[in-house]
Design brief:
- The protein folds into 2 domains: 135 residues, no CATH class; 73 residues, no CATH class.
- The chain is built from 8 helices and 11 strands.
- A hairpin with a 6-residue loop joins β10 and β11.
Length: 233
């Protein structure tokens, strides 16, 4: 087995979402053939769990399941650029000439949103009749949501329930509280978590080949587009 060449990168969370702030920087290496073999085995049923194994193999400094969702996307985008290439071919409708076009976007031009330096967890949120504390969601939370859905249970409130920090309430109690909550209070929770979104925003410029209009598009986070040498629109 060849020598592993790791490089140091700074995560969008800057470590502020973790108990150990030093995890703001981690070591990562590009994919190897054995990692691509795991990627080839991804299905809708195993994708999130497989990514735990894949990410565990290519990073040092933190348990992959503890990574925030934003940090996970940042690592995967880094891998797409450094293990494959920067190209992301896509079909779209030009905002200016309204014609169907095919363009190749540059993944390296995507901005990464970072948490502000004053971010702390838990996040205190005042609702209409109570105060709750929230935390950011992690890869482990997403895996848990998938397992919940496999049982045929509704996932509408599930991630919001996991984000609530309250040792006196179990998951079912949190779900019940959310079900009884007013839509306005639910929206406060939703917007609070959205406020602390971090990681790649997936917005990149494009130039229309027909009218030369310079626009922007939000690229879908599709694994088959990110991790492939034979990328097609």
């Amino acid at each position: 087995m060849g020598e592993e060449q790791f490089v140091t990168i700074t995560l969008p969370s800057k470590g502020l979402a973790y108990e150990d702030p030093s995890t703001g920087t981690i070591q990562v290496r590009p994919f190897k053939g054995r990692d691509e073999a795991l990627l080839a085995e991804l299905t809708l049923d195993n994708a999130k769990k497989k990514f735990v194994t894949i990410i565990k193999n290519v990073i040092k400094g933190i348990d992959p399941e503890k990574l925030t969702s934003g940090d996970v996307q940042y690592i995967l985008l880094w891998q797409a650029i450094n293990s494959y290439n920067r190209d992301y071919p896509i079909q779209l409708v030009c905002e200016h000439c309204l014609k169907n076009i095919q363009v190749v976007c540059d993944l390296s031009k995507i901005n990464s949103v970072e948490l502000s330096d004053d971010f702390v967890q838990p996040i205190v949120v005042k609702l209409s009749n109570r105060t709750v504390q929230l935390r950011l969601l992690t890869l482990n939370d997403e895996i848990s949501e998938f397992d919940w859905s496999v049982q045929g249970k509704s996932t509408y409130f599930y991630l919001y329930a996991l984000s609530i920090v309250d040792e006196k309430m179990d998951l079912l109690a949190k779900l019940s509280m959310l079900e009884d909550m007013s839509p306005s209070d639910l929206n406060v929770i939703r917007e609070t978590l959205k406020k602390y979104d971090h990681g790649p925003d997936m917005i990149t410029p494009y130039i229309c080949p027909l009218c030369e209009y310079e626009g922007k598009i939000e690229l879908p986070f599709r694994y088959e587009k990110l991790f492939s040498f034979s990328k097609q629109p």
